[in-house]
Fold this sequence. Notes:
Shape of chain A: elongated
Strand content of chain B: 5-15%
Radius of gyration of chain A: 22 Å
Structural class of chain A: mainly alpha
Oligomer: heterodimer
Amino acid sequence: MPRMTITLSEQRQKAVKETAARRGVSITELIDESLELAGVRTQEDAAHIVARARAKSGLSDAEAMDLALRETAAVRGPS
Amino acid sequence: MPLAVIDTNVVVSGVLSSSPGSPTVRIVDAMLSGRLRFALSETLLIEYRRVLSRPTIVERHGLTGAEVDHFLEGLVVNALMRDPSVTDHGGAPATDLPAAVHGDEHVIALMAAVPEAVLVSGDIRLRESLASRYQVASPAEFADGLK
């Protein structure tokens, strides 16, 4: 796994160590959790989500487009 | 690769299609990976979410609301966000838009804000109504140009 060096204030560094110790997790795990909560996610995650959706749908390309057109039209209202 | 505006039906179909290598799948994958330059407005993004959250669609893809949001975040990261109330030239968009098909006004407004873009849509009626004014393409036509 690649390493990254960050600079924190002394107080922030102390707080990170104390919080990790209190919660019984590593600093890496704590930062990972915090980034997740802040909405920092990887593109791979989004691609994985889409791959799962495609596998579940079982729709051919034509069926998927037909459904997408119908449902989009329903949102846009009658033409 | 030209700038594109990707209509909602293309994004939704690209999420639902189980056909590997299909045009909409390739377009959505290119949007997620940053290989495709595309413009997006807040209104169009909200519509992506609304359609992906409709019960019939959710039944098919099985994603939670948080997962839909996560997917959309993956798109937004690579999108060129545009406010259709302002053109690239700093003025208001042209008001002499083609006779708007009811409900498609937000797509037409975004095209007016980025007139150099290609509208990619599976909706033949919309493509035909805008073809005289903007570049339009079906998903298959557009995906042919993707690497």
